[in-house]
Known about the structure:
By secondary structure, the chain is an alpha/beta fold. About 35% of the residues lie in helices and about 20% in strands.
Amino acid sequence: xxxxxxxxxxxxxxxxxxxxxxxxxxxxxxxxxxxxxxxxxxxxxxxxxxxxxxxxxxxxxxxxxxxxxxxxxxxxxxxxxxxxxxxxxxxxxxxxxxxxxxxxxxxxxxxxxxxxxxxxxxxxxxxxx
Length: 129
């Protein structure tokens, strides 16, 4: 099985939620922007753009929005299993008044996260929620 871990940009969260697990498991990883342009990563030991068709599984770090939802469905049409990775209970962030991103987690945004989660073949979480 070949897996690709896809993280958010060049963030520290991309590093510890995507790059480190990918490296530990011997798989490829990339950090991308919202248009799916590679910003960082290692593919077959090199810094190169991956060919998505080469993978059996793609693990995506908190994909959100219509562009991501369509990408997920496109990968699935190619026979790729897509997993949603999140280390947060997203529906709880908006309720935490001291959370730095609390104001961004509106009901509309949460619906966009939920749509991408539902589109995936599975979800990797770190909480019981």
